[in-house]
Design brief:
With 206 residues, the protein is an alpha/beta fold. The protein is built from eight helices and seven strands. Strand 1, helix 5 and strand 2 form a beta-alpha-beta unit. The longest helix is centred in the first third of the chain and has 18 residues. 40% of the residues are buried. Belongs to the methyltransferase superfamily. RNA methyltransferase RsmG family.
Length: 206
């Protein structure tokens, strides 16, 4: 996917495109000194990372506040913050336990004046109320739902970017958790899935 193809698909403004270009530039530079994303994915960054993140907005078009768990390189959180930047009621929390990743995230947030807060801490220990909690490539569903539980219990919808093993992960997760879920095919990779989760609670032991 080219930048112009992304701009057409998302109806992105010139300002949003400029911010996304800056994100890619800073990510490329940072990735040379720390492992944020696989270097082999950079040539396809617009599809693999930018569009992959942006598609979440189609599944929650009214959502203003988001929490990105294990925000890492900023996917999907930084992309969401860029695309929601002109929305006055929007805010994205970028949560990561590793200090050097948080420093990268904060540098981008500051450079682009994003409506976002970087939190250096464990996802499951935060007490933040948001419309949507999200994560990408963070953990298998069973553990991921544990990280997301505080947000889901406060009324958030879960939207999680997963790979082709999503169905198998959901089967395993249901041994520990009760929840309602839907699966959508990823528009960036037909092998990928987006898992939507609501009403989470632990399975009662017998």
């Amino acid at each position: 996917m080219t930048p112009s193809e992304f701009q057409t698909l998302r109806s992105a403004t010139p300002a949003q495109m400029a911010d996304l270009e800056t994100l890619i530039e800073r990510l490329t530079a940072a990735n040379a000194v720390m492992n944020l994303i696989g270097p082999d994915t950079l040539p396809d960054v617009w599809n693999r990372h930018i569009f992959d993140s942006a598609q979440l907005l189609d599944l929650a078009p009214d959502a203003a506040t988001w929490a990105d768990l294990g925000a890492g390189a900023g996917f999907p959180g930084l992309v969401l913050a860029i695309l929601l930047k002109d929305r006055a009621d929007s805010h994205v929390w970028l949560i990561d336990s590793l200090g050097k990743r948080c420093r990268f995230l904060q540098e981008v947030v500051d450079a682009l004046s994003l409506r976002a807060t970087v939190v250096n801490g464990r996802a499951e220990e935060q007490r933040i109320k948001v419309d949507v909690v999200t994560a990408r490539a963070l953990a298998p569903m069973e553990r991921l739902l544990g990280y997301a539980q505080p947000y889901l219990q406060r009324g958030a919808q879960g939207l999680f970017l997963k790979g082709e093993k999503a169905e198998a992960e959901l089967i395993e997760a249901r041994k520990v958790w009760q929840f309602d879920s839907d699966l959508s095919v990823s528009r960036s990779d037909p092998r990928g899935r987006i898992v939507s989760v609501r009403s989470l609670r632990r399975v009662q032991s017998r």
